[in-house]
# Entry
Amino acid sequence: MSDVEPDAMSDEPITVERLVSDLRELGLSAGDTVFVHSSLSALGWVCGGPAAVVDALQQTVSAEGTLVLPTFTGDYSDPGGWQDPPVPDEWEPTIRETMPAFRPGSTPCPRIGAIPNTFRSYPGVVRSDHPVVSFAAWGADAEAIVLPHPDDEPLGEGTPLARLYDHDASVLMLGTDYETATSCHLAEYRGEFPKEHETGGGPAIRDGERVWLEFDDVALDTADFPAVGEAFERERPDAVAVEQVGVAESRLVDQRALVDFAASWFGENRPESLEQADEGAAAPAAED
Ligand SMILES: CC(C)(COP(=O)(O)OP(=O)(O)OC[C@H]1O[C@@H](n2cnc3c(N)ncnc32)[C@H](O)[C@@H]1OP(=O)(O)O)[C@@H](O)C(=O)NCCC(=O)NCCS
# Structure
């Protein structure tokens, strides 16, 4: 393990060899199935940039294992929900009619990070075709995990995220935390608490034609994911390894344990009814 503080700049270049050694120290092995979240800048000065990290991940799990990365494309979603930046209401019909379709082989995903955006076009990588929340995979079970990808409830049952669970995957957080632990979304579908439903949209290719795809979904919410992570690590320390990879504090988590824990945590901690959620939001702070 490195003796460099997590946020410090590395005092040596972080090479592929160093990354492989750190990943093994964390507990990642040949043959593993792993779902990876990442921050390149957190790792230190990586010699070779994002490609070096992808090479190191491939070397560590080997072709007997499987790497899966989120290659989400929020830019290909319904413009009605855009915040960063919003667009004028009157532009929305034009955007829905003319935005080029999401294409798994070529559509970039820069907002989810340089590492997945590099990984998606590596030889042998397979990517699902959901316009907003696609997954890319390489290795032994790549196709079995990412294909097919249902349009509706795209992070719920029958999706790549649920098949990662079925394949007993680990979640690797390279310099990231529970706020971006997508696996907790699967727990939102599974947890027993009242849910709102919504319609999502995005430009996709279906039956060879560009269409504006509308899909049903549960309204998902990451706000309490850090609290879930904190409780999970307190109650299931056996299911989490923490070490530095490069100079980034990184985690290797048992995905099944996380999803099962989060589903019951949501059942206990999310409001019992949508009315209660509304009242909670409107209620004045309680006085001592
Ligand atoms: C958003 C997020 C990707 C930002 O992390 P980041 O480290 O700032 O950005 P990236 O991973 O894209 O890496 C690019 C940055 O690395 C740095 N960088 C560039 N070359 C580098 C090198 N050779 N070595 C190290 N860092 C380098 C730069 O700061 C670069 O930013 P710039 O392009 O703006 O100059 C990260 O915080 C995150 O949330 N990751 C998880 C994403 C995820 O899986 N989400 C799940 C669904 S919500």
